[in-house]
Each structure stands twice: as structure tokens, then as C-alpha cells.
Write a structure and sequence with these properties.
The protein has 191 residues and is mainly alpha-helical. It has one domain: Arp2/3 complex 21 kDa subunit ARPC3 (Orthogonal Bundle). Helix content is 71%, strand content 0%. It is built from nine helices and no strands.
Length: 191
């Protein structure tokens, strides 16, 4: 049983623990793959489609911690840039990163890191929900600014196109991610 308060760090183990690093690599790869798989079914409602990706982005930080969570999302982006069809709707390529949804995609990396930092010592449901909501806000902030610049549209229009339609579903995904993080930590602490 792990006696440290932060389950993610217990999972990572000490720096010299090779088995713990391998477990973290496997989990980071798994969460990158789940993020990729969740992008296949996309609902195109404008320049940024609706997917389940944010659920796994937010969960990756809380489950893996800030470093491995962000690394997991870097792996996801690298898969897409390498030509694997892992971006929304089964697309790929550097053009997706440089296009209208690029800010949201880049926000995945920072969001996973932020959620990991905020949940590192968090106990209880409220801090987990707060962390996932902060991670979601970071994705929205980066994505909206990027959409405004790339799309050459005013910021209020970028918010209407890139945040408002997604808010109800993304709030549910943030709560679901907090639930998954809590369940993961409970399992790891009793293992």
C-alpha cells in the first residue's frame, strides 16, 4: 500500500525505479492512444469539431502527474504530425497543428501538465474537479487566441465558435475526468 498522499507519484516511484518508469511509459502511451482513439468520432460543428479528447487529456495529467501527462500529450501530437490519423475526424499532419484547431491541440500538452500539478497532492473531489476545470480553461484560452489569430477573427467571435458550443459537453467531460482520476488514485493507493 502506498502511504504517500499523491497516488500519481507513488505510481511513478523513485527516480531509480526502472519498473515504475516502464509502467509510466506504458500508461503515457495508453493515454496518448486513448486520446487518439477518441478523436476518430468527431462531430463537425465549425472550425473545431466535438470529440471526447478532452476527457483523456484532463485525465492524463491527474493519473500520470504533470511530467508524464504532458509527455503523453506530446506523444499524441507527434503521432498526428507523423501522419497517423489521430486528430479529429481521423486527420493528421502538421497542417492540423498550424490550422484553426492548433491552439487547442497545443493546449492539450499544457493542460495535462497543469492538471497534473494541481492534483499532485489533491485530496477529495472538489480539488480534482477544480483542477480539471482549470485544465479545460487553459485549453480554451490557448485555442481561442490561436483561432482568433489564425482565423483573423475578433476574439469574441473566436469564443463563440471555439468555446460556447463545446462548453456543456466539456464540463461533463471535466467532471468525468475528475471522477476517473479519483477512482485511479483510490485503486493505486489500495494496491
Amino acid at each position: 500500500m502506498c502511504d504517500r498522499p499523491e497516488a500519481a507519484r507513488c505510481w511513478e516511484g523513485d527516480a531509480g525505479d526502472q519498473a515504475a518508469r516502464v509502467r509510466s511509459m506504458v500508461l503515457a502511451s495508453l493515454l496518448a492512444s486513448l486520446t487518439a482513439a477518441s478523436s476518430i468520432v468527431a462531430i463537425p460543428i465549425g472550425p473545431v469539431p466535438i470529440t471526447l479528447q478532452s476527457l483523456f487529456v484532463l485525465a492524463s495529467g491527474g493519473i500520470l502527474g504533470p511530467g508524464w501527462g504532458a509527455l503523453s500529450m506530446c506523444l499524441y501530437l507527434l503521432m498526428g504530425m507523423a501522419g497517423l490519423p489521430v486528430f479529429a475526424g481521423g486527420t493528421s499532419g502538421i497542417g492540423r497543428i498550424l490550422g484553426p484547431s492548433g491552439g487547442y491541440l497545443l493546449g492539450f500538452v499544457l493542460s495535462a501538465g497543469l492538471v497534473g500539478l494541481m492534483t499532485r497532492r489533491a485530496g477529495g473531489r472538489f480539488p480534482l474537479v477544480l483542477a480539471t476545470l482549470a485544465g479545460l480553461a487553459l485549453i480554451y484560452a490557448l485555442g481561442s487566441v490561436w483561432l482568433s489569430i489564425i482565423g483573423r477573427i475578433p476574439m469574441d467571435r473566436a469564443l463563440l465558435l471555439g468555446v460556447v458550443p463545446f462548453l456543456p459537453g466539456d464540463l461533463l467531460k471535466a467532471f468525468a475526468a475528475a471522477f476517473l482520476i479519483g477512482r485511479w488514485r483510490a485503486r493505486v493507493q489500495t494496491a
